[in-house]
């Protein structure tokens, strides 16, 4: 009979970023070595060695949420600055992928009641014309 371990280790691999302070330093390092007009989302993923999904998972964690949202905001600011240039399609595409939209959805509720009285427009069949 084998002896069972009393305190087994949790399954799965260790998180890449167990500490938000360490992640913040890596994000700061990325922004410090990159010109503000060159901030990019994929470069941020690469700097953190995370996939898009991985970064979203960290963003869902309360300790990391604000750090990642602020980093993404810096990147969005860079793309937004690009909108003032001559070639804006890439910046528009990137911002749309970050949740921005260039259209406004308007929801109209309520109803319209139209009351038309016979003869109001001169189309009363009882009117005798000439």
Textual characterization of the structure:
This protein is mostly helical and 130 residues long. The protein has a domain of 78 residues. The chain is 46% helix and 0% strand. It contains five helices and no strands. Helix 1 packs parallel to helix 4. The longest helix is centred in the middle third of the chain and has 21 residues. It starts with 19 loop residues before the first helix and ends in a 33-residue tail after the last helix.
Task: Provide the fold topology.
Layout: H1 20-33, H2 41-48, H3 52-59, H4 62-82, H5 89-97
Helix pairs in contact: 1-2, 1-4, 4-5
The overall average pLDDT, rounded, is: 85
- The tally of helices reads 5
SSE arrangement, N to C: HHHHH
Count of individual beta strands: 0
The level of helicity is: 40-55%
| Biggest beta sheet attributes | none
Short characterization:
The protein is mainly alpha-helical and 130 residues long. The protein is built from five helices and no strands.
């Amino acid at each position: 009979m084998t002896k069972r371990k009393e305190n087994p280790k949790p399954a799965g691999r260790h998180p890449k970023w167990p500490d938000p302070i360490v992640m913040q330093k890596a994000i700061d390092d990325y922004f410090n070595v990159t010109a503000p007009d060159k901030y990019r989302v994929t470069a941020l993923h690469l700097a953190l060695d995370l996939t898009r999904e991985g970064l979203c998972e960290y963003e869902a964690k309360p300790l990391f949420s604000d750090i990642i949202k602020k980093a993404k905001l810096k990147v969005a600011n860079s793309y937004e600055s690009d909108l003032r240039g001559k070639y804006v399609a890439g910046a528009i595409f990137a911002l749309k992928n970050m949740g921005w939209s260039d259209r406004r959805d308007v929801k109209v509720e309520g109803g319209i009641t139209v009351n038309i009285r016979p003869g109001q427009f001169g189309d009363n069949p009882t009117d005798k014309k000439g």
